[in-house]
Amino acid sequence: MRVSVNWLREYVDFDCSPDELAQKLTMVGLEVEESRLITAEEFAALGGSGEQDDIVWDTKVTPNRGDLLSVLGTAREVGAVVGRAARVPSSEVVQSGPKASQLINIRIDAPDLCRRYAGVVIRGVSVGPSPGWLRDRIIAAGMRPINNVVDVTNYVMFELGQPLHAFDYRLLRGPQIIVRRARTGEALTTIDGEKRDLDSDMLVIADAERPVALAGIMGGADTEITDRTVDILIESANFDPVGIRRTSKRLGLTTESSYRFERGVDPGVTDLAAWRAAQLIKQIAGGDVAQGIVDVYPSPVSPVVLTVRPQRVNAVLGTSIEPEVMVQILCSLGIETVFEDDILRCKVPTFRSDLCREIDLIEEIGRLYGYDKLPQTLPCRSLQGKDSREGAFTERVRRILISCACQEVLTHSLVDSRYASLVGKENEVVRVRNPLSEDLDSLRTSLAVNLLQVIARNQARGMESVSVFEIGKVFRRVSGDICETRSIAGAMVGNLWRSNWSLPSDALAADFFWCKGLVESLMDGLCIGGVAFERTRNPLLHPTRAAKVLAGGQEIGFLGEVAPEAIEFFDIKGRPCVFELDFEALMRNAPDAVSYKPLPKYPAVHRHLAVVVKESATYKEVRDVVVKSGGGILEEVCLLDVYKGPQIPPECRSLTLELVFRSSDRTLTDEEVNAVVEHIRSSLSDSLGAAFR
Amino acid sequence: MTQQENLECLRKQALEDIGRAESLAELDVVETRYLGRKGEVTQLLRTIGSLPPEERRSFGQRVNQIKEELAAVIQNRRNELSVVEISTKLQKEALDVTLPGRFFQVGRPHVLVETLKRIKDIFIGLGYEIVESPEIELYKYNFAALNYPEEHPALDEQMSFYITDDCLLRTQTTAFQHRVMEKRKPPIRVCTMGKCYRVDAVDATHSHTFHQVDCFTVDHGITMADLKGTLHQFAVEMFGRDVQVRFRPDFFPFVEPGAEVAVTCTICDGKGCGVCKGTGWLELAGAGMIHPRVLETVGIDPEEYTGFAFGFGVDRIPMIKYSIDDLRLFLENDLRFLRQL
Fold first, then answer.
1. In this prediction, what percent of chain A has a pLDDT beyond 70?
2. Are residues B249 and A363, on separate chains, in Cβ contact within 8 Å?
3. Rounded CA gap, A611 and A24, in Å?
4. What residue numbers bound the domain in which A63 lies?
């Protein structure tokens, strides 16, 4: 709220400078975000008097403190800070002529949405420009002066926090005011010229025939104050915050009035504000104020009495504040407080509807005592802190992948729903109902796709080679339920050496086998055994360069070269590879602890074997035969070379294997090893038709 | 010439030849010529039978003497030549050491993930158990259980992305509070962290996605002073010993009393600069004592137990630490940016 310091001084005295005061207010919770000087010349340029400078604050009022959306409310807070009471302005006015109740009939048909409705009538006013002092106040508050009647209603709203509305009395049919829900099909043209279609959830002010105002938000154009207006009805009412908020949101219309009603207006100030407006209008626009006020207030609100236990205050704040100090603080806030029988009895004024229970008053005591004066301690009990299981496992995975030359990245979960189609999960995608834009309309189903976008973006900026990974959440809709799971993915393209003058340019290409090697390294680093790779089909991947990853016989992810469609979608140069693994499945398969195996005592025997097999036989098939026929002394099988060429029959390839034999209890003899190798050879011949070179 | 004279002449000749040998190969030839099986010195020894018997002894001794002498001289010369030859060979292997190495682009942690890890470690040190929490959250946990009234202006700051009528993307990690309290009984001291989402257009300082950390504790006798002490301890660990922490009242529906926590601006040391908008303070966290109503909804008696809670945005921390002026850099993943941190 914009608060004029000149105006503030009318209700409270303070000796410190405005800047010091602003700092003090900030420290008790009414933050003064900005303070600026508006010079007399600037006032004049905006249509003001040009008589004096003013300082205007922007205060940041928290949503619970509607009472601070007025100069008087701010003055009350200042009073509590500087130890001086704020002055409530006089609202006395000379009344004459007929009674207001003879001039206007007011009825509330929707008491759930309107707690109180009061009206005063002023006849014979001269509508015209406001005097300089009034224009200055209106300008300081951030509005434009309009005419003396409208300016007064705005003035009183800023002064007391009570939004008012002035009707041209003669244009009200009846003359009657009915506070009711709008009827289906009704419409109202508001003073901003917009025609608004109403529905039955919206509260309107109607005369005998039609809606004349959108309750608490904006008046209607038909009955607004004009130069020709002579008699006026001032409305001062109290509307339900939730109702006002709903209507305001539905119509996309927020006004100074609706803003205040949403945050709660004091039902105790309704009549005072009406009289204050009458007083000022009579003073500057003339006219006669009809006698009395029509005040419909079916269930008056009275101040709440709360009890506060001083020892509880200190138990919550960690302080030892004396009860007398508490009394003093509460009284300075306008809360009448007495201390008797070890208890504080506090009468909370109606303008502080945010104070409902003891804890609210404890905060009041704490904030005015000063948070900076509270001691600083740590909880007495010591507890053992620990990471979550997922958090600890994440760290293990990160460490391995970072050590494998992968750059960690962090990508958005909100993505284009077309990404899901790239991985064939368009039926599982979780959509956002109210996306910011079309390309942020869903949650990611896969991290790998996001990483392709990272590659594309980096390539567009001149970095051809990229190797990245991410650990994060993915979201899917599975048979109606929304699944939120963790995933681990990597993507790479180009060449992994930054400077490669000493190597062939493709020596360390980020290709399928690099990608697979990363997954193997990760599995090895996590001590996960029994890992297998099988050819698979995956919409994101190249149809013949794709593998699923299995651990313990269960599929836990995929890897492979990216399909041309996705490469084209992201406009990537080169042939990127990706992998993606299910975090929970990986964690399930990773042992928490491994035991030590003694180092070998006896030497190993190495043999090479060049196996020529049909290309249709996979390496895994060859290896399985070797391992099975190699028996207990075959320790390791390494693939040294894969060769196709003139010496090899067509549609065949030669696999050069290094076989490592070792026994745990003796040194192996040549004869022993030769016999096993011979057995391996015959098994390969028998089962795969292998020849040897 | 007598045999003796021949012998001395041969010795002189051999020493000269050894001295003239310029390579190990030449030296080998010299050695073979004089000391080999058929070498000249060896041959002389065989002529010993032609000498008068009284001369044989002294001649034999002299031949052996010369043999030993030559062997020693050859060995010396060999050592000398080896040194020269090795060094010549190494000279020829010279490399241009200023050529670049096979530079391996090492992987690096992402600066935000690393910041989260650092924060996590600090809170584990303060006795907090890290718990996981979902990003798709029920309206109930994100708002209702946190004492947000329906249709309240407090919701304006938390515009939500909705998935279904009652499911949304959490707007604050605070949503985990109620979930934890439903399952655990005091003493509770837990922390969670992760992505949060609000309907907010992306610019240098705003994003629809950001990261938060939330902690809370519930126990006998927890006070606001404990909250102050805990956040002070955190700030010292995160920003250094000299940091000052400021608490001032603020409003969050789920805490009472509520506070905004700020730390001295580390860019200007509290003197006031562009980053802190001249105030010398940087807003760090929202905090407060857990509202009794929040405790009551999970059946914890607020008369018996009290608690505090605080939460803060993580993205600002590395922005402050590395003077990063654009929030978007974190999730854009430009390698030239990521590799600097």
1. 100
2. yes
3. 86
4. 2-82
